Amino acid sequence: MKYTIDPQTLRDIPDEYEAWTQIGVAARMLGELDLAERALTKAFELRPSTAARLRLAHVLQWQGRFSEAHAEFAKCAETGEIPGFVHQHWGKCYFDEGRYAEALEHFRAALALREGGDPALVESTRIAITAAAARCS
Predict the structure, then answer these.
(1) At what angle do helices 33-46 and 16-29 cross, to 10 degrees?
(2) Backbone φ and ψ of 26, nearest 5°
(3) Alpha carbon 22 to chain centroid distance?
(4) pLDDT at position 87, please?
(5) Residue 28: predicted pLDDT
(6) Residue 47: burial class (beta carbons within 10 Å; 0-12, 13-18, 19+)
(7) Do residues 110 and 75 make contact, with C-beta atoms less than 8 angstroms apart?
(8) Distance in angstroms (rounded) separating the CA atoms of residues 94 and 29
């Protein structure tokens, strides 16, 4: 976590955006979705960005608030930023809803954007494609 040291107290002063983001992501992974939503909403307020909005949409998805999540994913897509991540996570939202054909479309779009890039991201997209394709048949 990024921080500075207060020269008077010598205490750590965290970068608020970074701290709220880390709290939110960890809380989501631990299933503490209300805390995750609060933390990631605060992070988004501090530094509105596509990445921050994407993280918040992911929490809405995990809460089963699919229409709200889709609205946030759509806003992310409109920016044209980090499109591979947007398609991958939007696809996961459709997957969680049981809308596998739409999930597959987003996963394929993510793969097209990620090919030749980070092998771990390409592999995660291939895993998602396999899972969605198996459920489409």
Answers:
(1) 160
(2) -65, -45
(3) 12
(4) 98
(5) 98
(6) middle
(7) no
(8) 19
Angle, helices 83-97/100-114, rounded to nearest 10 degrees: 160
What letter represents residue 116's amino acid?
G
Are the beta carbons of 118 and 85 closer than 8 angstroms? Answer: no
What residue type is assigned to position 52 of the chain?
A: A
> Can you state the angle between helices 50-62 and 83-97, rounded to 10 degrees?
10
Match 């946030």 to its residue by tokens: 72
Which residue reads 């709200």 in tokens? 68
**Residue 107 burial by Cβ neighbours in a 10 Å radius (0-12, 13-18, 19+):** buried
- The helix (H) or strand (E) run that includes residue 14 is strand 12-14
What b/e string do you get for 29-46 counting C-beta neighbours within 10 Å, with b at 16 or more? eeeebebbbbbbebbbeb
Q: Please check whether residue 66 is in contact with residue 54, taking contact to mean a CB–CB distance below 8 angstroms.
A: no
- Residue 95 neighbours by CB distance under 10 Å: 20
- Predicted structure pTM score: 0.88
Tokens of 26: 């960890």
Residues of the chain with pLDDT under 70: none
